[in-house]
Amino acid sequence: MAVLIQLRDAHKRFGDQILLDGADVSLVDDVKVGFVGRNGAGKSTLLRVLLGEEEVEKGEVIHHPTLRIGYLRQHDPFKEGESALDFLMRDSGAPDWRCGQVAGQFELKGNYLEGPVKALSGGWQTRVKLAALLLHDPNLLMLDEPTNFLDLRTQILLEHFLRDFGKAALIVSHDRAFLKATCSQTLELAKGKLTMFPGKIHDFLEFREERREHDRRVNATVIAKQKQLKQFIDKNRANASTASQARSKAKQLEKLQTVELEVDEPTVNIRAPRVQPRQGTAVRCEELAIGYPGHVVAEDINLEIEHGQRAAIVGDNGQGKTTMLRTLVHSLEPLEGRLKWGHGIEIGTYAQHVYSSLDERQTILEHLELASDPATTRQDILAMAGALLFRDEAIQKKVKVLSGGERARVCMASLLLGTANVLVLDEPGNHLDVETVEALAEALRLYKGTVIFTSHDRHFMARVATNVIEVRDGRVRNYFGSYDTYCEAVEKEVDEGERIRNAAAGKPAGKPTADAPANDRQEHKDQRKTGKELKTLERKIAKLDEEKRELNEKLLTETNPGEAIRLHDQVKAIEVELAEAEERWLELSDF
């Protein structure tokens, strides 16, 4: 297992902010790593350091001689008028047949492959860039927020690509579902330090919270012991017969130290607008047609959304999700039919055209004070601004100096501080980190109003949506199933497309061959071997479960901080071993 890149004792600042503070990490040749951290922690800076585009102030970056990095470019690398095939040939130097073959893995064909690449949507352009990466035969991929603006189908294609890519990857993403599907390890950047966790994102987040809770319990125990010792010392140090005991207790007190809690930022806490729940129909569409003059995007739309629902608008890019949302908020007029909102509706909108029209003369604080519910306190405004990363002097920034992402967060804050009883949200998770997206999802789940939204973050969609509306092939209709069911249906479609392409390319389809009897004997032998391993694993899992239970019982009663930490580490080691054994058991159960 070769180390492709090693970062040693790296130090880097940006103004007063410490981005890297003695950071160390090694990336090896066959591991896919999910890279997480709060917005502004320095993830993109670290990528540029590893790429050699920025230098560290102290420390070193060591590249293996065979290292070939494939970096997903966020900028537009295309020339005016060239097709995707032209670009792939120009960028890689590979012949047209090879470029077409690789492009096929991302369903790039016909006009998508041979038409003007600049005319493609952002999601399809990302597919072209991914095909270009693969043509360069990298052994380490670096992807910075690769799922931004990708529809579900393209995300699944990217997941399958990464699953079949037998080399290393470092992936920055706030999309938990994507990281869970693609990465076996998790790297966190917090307070300038890099921590590599040997497990998937959900296990890492659970471990991190357990560790913090453990540290809180240890601190509570230490503080209680400190108080007890101080009381004994104060009571006995003046008494000649107990003074020596008091001195002994004082030495014990000096040794007792609390643990610094590993929290890099204050916990994000977001609330949605406080509104009264309502009954009945929020909006009704009858024989509706949507689109632009001379271009119908979808028609014959008959749809109702009830008060209190959280309706997820789903569909491939270019099918009309944003057109539907813009029509609902009257940013676009219907081409035909009738759109009617219920009585007493107040709509709050989050979309690109909204946050590009802020008053640039205002400060962030001034904008939030004007946009918020009159009953909102200044403390509420500061708390919401802080949750969306505007803290201390940052809240006094003028809108005119803010980046696009910062303006988007200002709009989100003002929307949540307002009084809207219907929220229409187009990609609300963009520009937010993992913790803030999770906090927003929880706020929307508790919201008493109606939510109509679209997002490319599957974890967010699954957490928030109560019903699903699909935009597809010129139609908009209720999808009778959960968001998870919809994802499964799209996954099956992608799998079928890959099966057809593999068959056309002459790849084996896994059907029985002429020597079936020999295969049957081998299969029977394999099944016996699998059965034996299953029984061994079941005994091992039972044994590990018992050991974990006993250690947890000891941990609950342990008052010595050092011993408590040792026991906790033993528990975590057993949990890792247990997870591996259970995962293997599941694999064999499907044999």
From TrEMBL:
One of its GO terms (molecular function) is ATP hydrolysis activity. It holds the Pfam family ABC_tran. Residues 5-223, 283-498 form the ABC transporter domain. Gene3D superfamilies: P-loop containing nucleotide triphosphate hydrolases (3.40.50.300), Valyl-tRNA synthetase, C-terminal domain (1.10.287.380). SMART domains: AAA. Residues 503-517 have a biased composition (Low complexity). This is Putative ABC transporter ATP-binding protein YheS.
